[in-house]
TrEMBL record:
Species: Escherichia coli
Span list, region Disordered: 61-88
PROSITE patterns in the record: HTH_CROC1
Full protein name: Helix-turn-helix domain-containing protein
UniProt feature, compositional bias: Polar residues: 76-88
């Protein structure tokens, strides 16, 4: 995950220090996340929101967000369920 997070931080034009300021943590904490340390469960959604949902809760913590759409706001979730009550 760490390379994905590093790349997405760079693609968004953000810095680790900038993210740290927005979250209210030292830059070193964000650096550790970007270098492979697990993001705490209490910070996953906050980090995803700062990243404009370009990194997902599933990407950061698949152990607590096992499905790709888990934790995403409704507008970012897509339905893969077939319509019910419709005959083919």
């Amino acid at each position: 995950m760490h390379e994905c997070l590093k790349n997405k931080i760079h693609q968004r034009g953000l810095s680790q220090a900038g993210i740290a300021r927005l979250i209210g943590l030292p830059q070193q904490v964000v650096s550790r996340w970007a270098n492979g340390q697990q993001v705490p469960a209490s910070r996953v959604l906050q980090l995803c929101e700062i990243m404009a949902w370009e990194v997902t809760p599933h990407e950061l913590r698949p152990d607590i967000y096992p499905n790709p759409t888990d934790g995403l706001p409704a507008e970012f979730q897509t339905s893969t369920q077939p319509a019910t009550g419709v005959d083919s």
